[in-house]
Amino acid sequence: MYSPIIEKKYSDLHTKEKKCICDWIQGQYDKYDAIEGKYSGDKYSDSIFQDAEELFGLSHDELSVIWMKQYDYK
To answer: How far apart are the C-alpha atoms of 47 and 69, rounded to whole Å?
Structure first.
């Protein structure tokens, strides 16, 4: 999978792009919850964030900050 966000530096990301990242991460949590048939909590966080690092070209720390501020992007 490819995301044009990978071509940008963290410091150049706009609010819309950060929201897109948060939506993707939330979608992954929702997918794993559906697979489990229940709320899976943080069970898959490492896998989700590792995939996000590859997809968006951002570090774990950068993604964590974006995710932590997800409600700022609404």
So the answer is: 20
